[in-house]
Amino acid sequence: MAATHELMGEGGAVSMEAIAKRAGVSKETLYRWWPSKTSVVLDALAERGQSTIPLPDTGTLRGDLAAFLRSTADSADPATRHLLRAIAAAAANDLDAAAEIRTRFISARRAALNRVLARAATRGEVIASNADTLLDLIYGSLWYRLIFDVGPLDHTWADDIAAAIAPAP
Amino acid sequence: MAATHELMGEGGAVSMEAIAKRAGVSKETLYRWWPSKTSVVLDALAERGQSTIPLPDTGTLRGDLAAFLRSTADSADPATRHLLRAIAAAAANDLDAAAEIRTRFISARRAALNRVLARAATRGEVIASNADTLLDLIYGSLWYRLIFDVGPLDHTWADDIAAAIAPAP
């Protein structure tokens, strides 16, 4: 994972060969744990999200969403955005790839944001059964901007989405 | 356009050669009007959206959104979904392709839904300056489901999104 993070951060080609070399293990060892380059990169991205995007607890859904989405935008440096776009292209081209991406990466990000929504539900700010729809809307807007370049992923985006999902009471 | 629609509906390969043949014109004539196959397909998809997705006027944002998104889901038959996924992959792979897709297709769909939101703004149901964020959220959720297959694009999706964006007063 650490070797993959390093290579991802350097923005160059991430291959099984390069990861094995950087980690000081054989390619055979790497393949014993991950079936493909895509699977290593997805796990590394999920781990990176987990460690760089803290779960905020500001006391309101609006505040939590703004903080969470600001961290999300901040953690998406140019190399990461490039990888995320490649992942979207792979998913759009192939339903099997989409399934692996959901299992290894999308589900981890949904689970993290879902904890923010669950806390909001206990405060009565959202209805718990709406959480899946809200996750679709929020992560949908992120990928839509990333893929079609309809607007920047920045703090203004984070605050606008937070305000639209959690209007002031 | 009609020839392109026919070929798209048949689900087979859509090439400039095939479009020209079906339309009974030379490839040179076709290239005089469209620079690439992608540009013809995008224009045909935009025209198809315009003609198969009516602008509803139910009197409420919730009703209008549910009707508009139900029509959107209905108009996306399997051949169209396949084309839309190919378009998403092209956009994710190449920022120039993303720009052409925004200009020829995405902007037309945003303009249509924006008219629904503008009517809701005159009724005081949304703030006009939030429209762009709402367009991102709504179309984001559509593409997110289409690309990553996180859930079906059907009437339940349409109704859930309408309810989340326009809660009952």
From TrEMBL, chains A, B:
What does the UniProt keyword field contain? DNA-binding, Transcription, Transcription regulation
Q: Name one GO molecular function term.
A: DNA-binding transcription factor activity
The answer to keyword Transcription regulation applying to this record is: yes
Under the heading Gene3D superfamilies, the entry gives:
Homeodomain-like, Tetracycline Repressor, domain 2
**What SUPFAM superfamilies has UniProt attached to this entry?**
Homeodomain-like, Tetracyclin repressor-like, C-terminal domain
Matching Pfam families, A to Z?
A: TetR_C_11, TetR_N
HTH tetR-type domain location is 1-52
Instruction: State the superkingdom.
Output: Bacteria
User: Which residue ranges carry the DNA-binding annotation?
Assistant: 15-34
| UniProt name for this protein | TetR family transcriptional regulator
